[in-house]
Specification:
This protein is mainly alpha-helical and about 90 residues long. It has 4 helices and no strands.
């Protein structure tokens, strides 16, 4: 995108760099969060990138699996809440 729309691509790169600066979370926790977000957004490129980062940080398969399952259950819970809202607010009064 930086070639197609330099201003937008550069703005995203700056945003990503600012968010990626070291914070209070340890690097592995940050990488697990990024992996789950990428997975929920179904971005294969991002998932691969974050898995490589996690491998370099020494994350275990069990840590990755647990994080992915936490993301899955959270997503399912959010969908259940949305379904209840639709049902109660839009179908039956």
């Amino acid at each position: 995108m930086e070639r197609a729309w330099p201003e937008g691509g550069n703005a995203f790169s700056e945003f990503a760099a600012a968010v990626s600066e070291h914070g209070v979370l340890d690097p592995k926790t940050r990488a697990l969060i990024l992996l789950v977000a990428a997975s929920l957004n179904r971005c294969s490129h991002c998932v691969d990138h974050h898995l490589e980062t996690l491998k370099a940080l020494g994350a275990t398969n069990l840590e990755v699996a647990e994080a992915m399952m936490l993301g899955s259950v959270t997503s399912a819970g959010a969908n259940m809440a949305w379904a209840a809202e639709v049902f109660h607010k839009r179908l039956f009064h």
